[in-house]
Structures are given as structure tokens and as C-alpha cells.
Design goal:
By secondary structure, this protein is an alpha/beta fold. Helix content is 39%, strand content 13%. The protein is globular, with a radius of gyration of 22 Å.
């Protein structure tokens, strides 16, 4: 791990995708064991994976933006690992169809025939002739397939060794709001050479997101307001303003988004993926989902259990999570991640928090309290002063990967002098806000309200839960400041949210591999373990590492286990650790 802040984290660096390198191929001559690249390849991959912060966003409760939301990216954890756990054959996973031209069983509803029988016109992508781009159509409302349609953008990185081709591997980076098209664009950095040789890597932008008939329901002022409001109100007046602003933003999003915004649920995206499976020529869906993409994978498996092929859910969360469970997991994930950072920092002579682990946490609490009162000055036009919203969000983002710890150390040191340039640059890079105040059209913030309000039930008004929340905030003061006010940000959304089943998911599905890091601030390991348990055929593999994102992130043990599953249909023993 480099001791220097990342270039894209610094104030002078460009924000958004302008910071990405022009070439995406691994360095010539890179070699190494399966799933373990050479040092040169690993350095290039590590750099790019962290730059992809806005590509693979994860849903986590980040009240610094809106109290019930979370967001993030799959970073790199470049640490040594023990040998892979011995692979244990599980229930055989049928080998996927070997060619796209193979017939696929026609078991779709007759009313959806036009969608399941359409043709995808693939053509070379403009930025990489080796990749193929195309589109497909799905109904806005599956209950009214003759009505409006979403046009979904697809990108395919064909199997590099056609003689070894197994089938398609559909991928989703999370968010909600992450672009699967961009995820596939950089597939050589996020999947091993062996997996890329055997699968067509297929990414797509979910309905209403990215290049898939995008629903853009928030303006730049709306998104700035999410960060500028005080996330930890100290008075009734401050709380009233916060809730009024959130309610107004949610209501504006519903009005601007219209009918399409009412149909951006993950359950509907799962149905889109089944149409995609047939169009790709696969009898079963092979899928890799990261972060919120694990929620999508679980929803697909529950809706189409007999169509599940080889499915990997990395850094997971369960559709069955209750508010109480989510809060418990959040605290565990945050506490373990901040402790890991503090342990690293206080061992350094230049640690912004000093060398006393016992007082380091309180120094961050005191800093956030001071920021709430006085703000931090910055050199960014239009944001000459930032408050607790931007600062807390940026600190949280730096916990997603140990590669960002040096940046966090520098940002905290600068903040203690009253300046917020480093932290602001980090936050702006994640949400794709440029110096002039414009957010990229692809920012995942556009999808957060429509998807979140469709996917989760409205927050409970149970007094016992409110008491539990109050006690948790008192017992965990730093977490409380990072999480902010707990409230229902969907109360002005016109449709009701999904009701979790609360029972076993995907009964009858083939084995599903669920993986996660022990110290993940975004999708805490508690949620990953719960998903593996909730899935009838879930197989759990945990990694004793920090950060968010497990596969192909520096742990050869995990890489070997995942590759063995995807390539040979065997999974490690349930409960294995790396």
C-alpha cells in the first residue's frame, strides 16, 4: 500500500471519469499464477479499481447524504492471504450452454413473447472494437407489457478463448445506480484471465440508469442540498428543516421521474435479467453481483430459482434484513473499519490523530462537532465552505479501501487546520461533481430515491426501534455522527415499498457462492452471513481483510475459490475463510 494520497483524491485532480486512463488493457508481458497477477499488473489493476468508485456504488445507510442511504465502491485490498480452502464438490451445477446459438427453453409468459424473442444487434463498441455493444427492450410495467418500454444498454467482452467458452456471465456492480456497461468495459481489471477466457462478460445499465432510458429526477441544486444540510440536527428547528428538505427532494424526484421512476425496482430489474438470459442463449443465468448487485442476484434467484446457474454474490446484503438487523450490522461494519484505520494510523509518525489509539476516535468526533459549528474552508468555486455532510461522507468513502487510508490521514490533518480540500475532492470524485457544481448525468445519486423507495418498506414507527436507535447513537458517538439522523426518506414517495419475505430465499436453486470481507464498512459481514443463510443453497466464504469488495482484490485464496466455482462448478465448503 502506498503511503501517498491517491491522485484522484487530491484537490487538483480531475473528478469523474476524466481521471480514468485512456487504455484499459493489462500491461504487456504481465504474468503470474491463476488469479494472482504480476506486481506490475496488480499495481495497474489496483489503481484502476479505486478510480472506478462511481462505477461500482453500493447501497449502505449514509445519512450524511440521506439518513437511510448508503453508497460506495469496491476497492482493492492488497494483502497476502493463506492458500485457498479446499474445494468441496456441492450439488452439481449444470454446464451452461456452450454457444449463443443453442436453443433456449421457451417457458416465458405468452404476453412477453415479443421481449423474449427479440434480437440483440451487437456491433463493435466505439471505444474498443474487441467489445460488442447492443440494446434490448423491456416493458416499463410487466403488468402492462403493451405499454411503454425501457431500452437497456448492453456491453459484452467476448470470451478470450472461444474453445473454452462456458457461456455468458452477467455482471452488476451495485449502487443502486452503478453502470454495468462501464463495469464490463473494465472487465480485464476485475475478473481473472481464466474467467475472461471462459465467459462472455456482459454488463448492462439497469432500467432508468446510465444509458438505459435514464430517469434523471434530481437537479444539481437537489444533490448539493443532500450534502449541505446538517445531518445531525441539534434542535427541533434544525430537524424540521432537514426533514422538510428531504421530503421536498423526494417529491420533486417523483414528479420529474413520472411513471418510469415508479418502475425502477430491483424486482423488475431481475425480470429484465431473465429476458437477457434468453437473448444471450443461456438456459441458466450465470451472474456476478457486487454490493447492491448481491441484492439483485438474490431477487433473481428467488424469482427464478430453476434458472440459476453459477452465481457469485460479493459483499452482500439480504433482502430479508430488518431495520434492527441493518443497524446492528452497520455499527459492526463501521466500528471494525474505523478501528483498522486507527490501528494503521497511530503506528505512523505522521498520524493526524496522534499515537494514542484510545483518544484517536474522540478526535474525529470532536472534529465533526467543530465542523458542524464552523465548517471547513475550501478552494473549490461554489463550495468555499463545507459542513458535516460532505466531511462525514468523504471520511466514510475513504474507509472503503486501505488504499485510501493515506488520503484520509492527509484529509484529517488538513481538516484539523480548518481546510477541507482533500476530503471534498474525495467526495466530489465519488459522486461525480465537477468544480463548477455540475453532477455527471451518470451519477448514481439519480437512482437512489426511485430504487430505494421501491426496494425497502417504509421505516417503522415502532417506539422500541426508536429507543434502540437512540441507545445505539449514545453508545457509538462516532457512528452516530457518520450516520446522522435516522428517518424515513421515502415518506413522500407515491408508491409503497417492497415487503420482505422474511423466509428462505431461492428454494430449489443451484448452489450460490456468497463472499465478503470481515471488515467491510459498506456491506458489513453480518449482512453477508445473513444472505448466505437466507438463501436455501447459499455457500459462505469470508475473507479476513479490510474494505469493500472481495474477489480479485488482492487475496489469491478468494480468487482461487471463486474461479474454481465459476470454471468448474465446485464451491468451497460452506463457512470457509481466507
Amino acid at each position: 500500500m502506498s503511503d501517498s494520497p491517491r491522485p484522484d483524491d487530491l484537490p487538483e485532480a480531475p473528478t469523474g471519469y476524466a481521471a480514468l486512463p485512456p487504455s484499459y488493457a493489462a500491461p504487456t508481458g504481465a504474468s503470474g499464477p491463476a488469479g494472482v497477477p504480476s506486481s506490475t499488473t496488480a499495481t495497474a489493476r489496483s489503481s484502476l479499481r479505486t478510480l472506478l468508485a462511481a462505477v461500482a456504488i453500493v447501497a449502505v445507510v449514509a445519512a450524511v447524504v440521506l439518513a437511510a442511504w448508503r453508497l460506495g465502491s469496491p476497492p482493492v485490498v492488497a494483502q497476502p492471504a493463506p492458500p485457498a480452502p479446499s474445494a468441496t464438490p456441492v450439488v452439481p451445477i449444470p454446464t451452461p450452454t456452450a454457444t449463443q446459438s443453442a436453443p433456449v427453453t421457451a417457458d416465458y409468459p405468452p404476453a412477453l413473447r415479443d421481449f423474449y424473442t427479440q434480437q440483440v444487434a451487437w456491433s463493435p463498441c466505439s471505444d474498443n472494437a474487441k467489445h460488442e455493444c447492443g440494446t434490448m427492450q423491456v416493458p416499463v410495467d410487466y403488468a402492462d407489457p403493451a405499454g411503454g418500454r425501457f431500452t437497456l444498454a448492453l456491453r459484452k467482452a467476448p470470451a478470450t478463448d472461444p474453445s473454452r467458452r462456458i457461456g455468458s456471465l452477467v455482471i452488476n456492480p451495485g449502487g443502486p445506480g452503478g453502470s454495468g456497461v462501464e463495469y464490463a468495459q473494465y472487465s480485464s481489471f476485475v475478473f481473472s484471465p481464466e474467467v475472461r477466457a471462459a465467459y462472455d462478460i456482459v454488463g448492462f445499465d439497469p432500467r432508468g440508469i446510465g444509458a438505459s432510458s435514464p430517469v434523471r429526477c434530481l437537479g444539481n441544486p437537489d444533490m448539493d442540498l443532500l450534502f449541505s444540510d446538517d445531518p445531525t440536527p441539534d434542535s427541533a428547528a434544525e430537524r424540521t428543516k432537514l426533514l422538510a428538505d428531504v421530503d421536498a427532494i423526494t417529491e420533486r424526484c417523483a414528479t420529474r421521474g413520472g411513471d418510469r421512476a415508479m418502475h425502477m425496482s430491483t424486482a423488475e430489474v431481475a425480470r429484465d435479467m431473465d429476458v437477457m438470459r434468453v437473448l444471450l442463449g443461456d438456459e441458466r443465468l450465470n451472474f456476478f453481483g457486487g454490493s447492491y448487485g448481491t441484492f439483485l442476484g438474490a431477487m433473481y434467484a428467488d424469482a427464478f430459482p430453476k434458472k440459476v446457474g453459477r452465481m457469485v454474490l460479493d459483499s452482500a446484503m439480504s433482502p430479508n434484513q430488518t431495520e434492527q438487523q441493518e443497524m446492528t450490522y452497520d455499527i459492526q461494519g463501521f466500528e471494525s473499519s474505523i478501528d483498522a484505520f486507527i490501528d494503521w494510523c497511530v503506528a505512523r509518525p505522521d498520524c493526524a490523530l496522534g499515537n494514542d489509539k484510545g483518544s484517536a476516535r474522540q478526535k474525529i468526533v470532536d472534529l465533526l462537532d467543530a465542523v458542524e459549528q464552523h465548517g471547513l474552508s475550501t478552494s473549490k468555486p461554489g463550495l468555499t465552505t463545507i459542513g458535516e455532510g460532505w466531511v462525514g461522507f468523504s471520511i466514510f468513502m475513504c474507509l472503503y479501501s486501505d488504499s485510501s487510508w493515506p488520503t484520509l490521514n492527509r484529509g484529517l490533518a488538513q481538516a484539523l487546520t480548518g481546510s477541507g480540500d482533500v476530503l471534498l475532492a474525495k467526495g466530489m470524485s465519488v459522486v461525480e461533481r465537477n468544480a463548477s457544481g455540475a453532477y455527471a448525468p451518470t451519477t448514481y445519486l439519480q437512482a437512489m430515491i426511485p430504487v430505494r423507495c421501491a426496494d425497502w418498506p417504509r421505516s417503522s414507527s415502532d417506539p422500541s426501534l426508536a429507543a434502540d436507535q437512540a441507545k445505539a447513537k449514545k453508545d457509538h458517538p462516532l457512528w452516530a455522527r457518520m450516520t446522522g439522523e435516522l428517518y424515513d426518506n421515502c415518506r413522500t414517495w407515491p408508491t409503497t415499498g417492497r415487503t420482505p419475505k422474511g423466509t428462505t430465499l431461492a428454494a430449489g436453486a443451484a448452489p450460490i457462492l456468497v463472499i465478503g470481507n470481515e471488515r467491510d464498512p459498506a456491506t458489513p459481514i453480518g449482512g453477508t452471513k445473513q444472505l448466505a443463510k437466507d438463501l436455501a443453497s447459499g455457500v459462505l466464504l469470508t475473507s479476513d481483510h479490510d474494505g469493500h469488495g472481495t474477489y480479485y482484490a488482492g487475496n489469491p485464496c478468494v480468487d482461487s475459490a471463486v474461479d474454481g466455482y465459476l470454471l468448474r462448478g465446485t464451491a468451497p465448503a460452506d463457512g470457509s475463510t481466507c
